[in-house]
Design a protein that fits this description.
This protein has 411 residues and is mainly alpha-helical. It is 79% helix and 4% strand. The chain contains 12 helices and 4 strands, in the order E-E-E-E-H-H-H-H-H-H-H-H-H-H-H-H. Strands 1-2-3-4 form a 4-stranded antiparallel beta sheet, with helices on one face.
Length: 411
């Protein structure tokens, strides 16, 4: 090799050894015996440039927050060790200082991460307390349809939240888990009871369907119709059986019921045909009865109506769709006769007549007494008393006239 080659941060000795200058003096970084001093210096300078690029990249990543504070500290430490001990030629002290300069930013980021973690933890605590509260309310509810699905949703929400400190997290988890266990136990007990009730209802409805089928061919229309009403009431109070069985039993029950009432309706239709003649007879009776109104002779009307009523009863039953109209018309005639009879009784009531006569007697006596007082006042010239007595006498005379008129109505 030729004479030694020097640069700002290192040199190449005559024997090809390359040195780097540091604050603690120079140190050997290696040899490049195969080439020229220039090539040797360039080789180790390129190593420095590569380190500087790594430092630059790390600065950018830390500045952009790409690394957690712990990752950043570890990366800085590792790269600094490489820089300090690097077999490279360049200002290694500056590179180390640039790495050290990241410490304040990392500290700020660490504080920010701690604050962010504390915020997330606080929010997680609030959210977990909400989840626990809802789960405990569900545990005391009877929402068997939606409760289980909702508790599964709450569990998924719990798993997605950050953990708290162990004591708090464990306490809340025990409450949440306990609520889920309580709800599940209550739900299982409910469906067990429900199954028992439905099975009991199945037994009852099988008996009711069987009895309904046994009555389907009965021709005792009245008693059997009443029994079917009782069976329907018992069916409703029995509650639901298992769905598939309930539908099957209802088909049997309703089929038997329809068969019976269909047969009864057919029988009634035949009777209605027979009763049509009776309806015509009652129409003729009604024509005679309705001629009794308006009533002029109540006693004669009563006698005639009794005869018509006997003929009415003897005529027999009428079709059901005619019954209401015909009966209503006959009752209307009967009520008209009774109303006239009641009015006559009111007019001839002996008790009312006696009370009217008694009142007339009292009024006449009072008028005679009042007249005597008036004559005395006139003879004494007491004009004030005369006026008062004349007014009193006029009022009593008016009452007497009314009482006499009322008494005439009872005579």
């Amino acid at each position: 090799m030729s004479a030694e080659l020097q640069s700002d941060w290192g040199r190449v000795a005559d024997d090809g050894t390359v040195y780097v200058r540091t604050l603690n003096g120079e140190r050997s970084v290696g040899q490049y015996a195969e080439g020229t001093p220039e090539e040797a210096l360039e080789f180790f300078t390129n190593r420095y440039d590569a380190l500087a690029f790594e430092v630059h990249l790390l600065e950018q990543r830390i500045g952009a927050g790409k690394l957690s504070p712990e990752e950043a500290v570890s990366a800085v430490k590792s790269l600094r060790e490489q820089v300090v001990e690097a077999n490279a030629v360049g200002d290694l002290t500056v590179l180390a200082a640039r790495l050290d300069a990241n410490a304040p930013l990392i500290a700020i980021q660490r504080d920010a991460k701690r604050a962010e973690k504390a915020q997330r933890t606080a929010e997680s605590k609030v959210e977990k307390e909400r989840i626990v509260g809802e789960a405990e309310r569900l545990a005391e509810s009877k929402d068997w349809r939606n409760g289980a699905n909702r508790l599964r949703d709450l569990l998924d929400q719990w798993k997605a939240l950050p953990r708290l400190d162990k004591a708090t997290d464990d306490t809340l988890w025990r409450r949440f888990s306990g609520a889920r266990t309580t709800y599940t136990r209550h739900r299982k007990a409910h469906f067990a009871e429900e199954h028992e009730r439905r099975d009991s209802a199945r037994v009852i409805k099988e008996r009711l369907a069987g009895e309904a089928e046994s009555l389907a061919t009965s021709t005792e229309w009245g008693p059997t119709a009443g029994r079917y009403r009782d069976l329907m009431r018992d069916w409703k109070t029995a509650g639901p059986a298992p769905r598939d069985i309930d539908d099957e039993l209802w088909t049997r029950f309703r089929g038997a019921q329809d068969a019976f009432f269909g047969a009864r309706d057919a029988a009634d239709a035949e009777l209605d045909k027979e009763f049509a003649v009776n309806a015509e007879l009652k129409e003729e009776i009604l024509i005679e009865a309705e001629k009794l109104v308006p009533v002029t002779d109540v006693e004669a009307a009563k006698k005639a109506f009794r005869d018509l009523a006997d003929r009415w009863d003897a005529a027999g039953k009428v079709p059901r769709d005619r019954m209401k109209d015909l009966e209503g018309r006959m009752r209307k005639v009967e009520q008209a006769i009774r109303s006239v009879e009641d009015d006559k009784w009111k007019r001839t009531d002996p008790e009312k007549s006696a009370r009217a006569d008694d009142m007339i007697g009292k009024l006449e006596a009072g008028i005679a007494d009042e007249q005597a007082k008036l004559d005395k006042a006139r003879s004494s010239g007491d004009d004030r008393s005369v006026k008062r007595l004349e007014e009193s006498l006029a009022n009593k005379q008016a009452f007497l006239d009314m009482a006499r008129k009322a008494s005439q109505e009872f005579s």
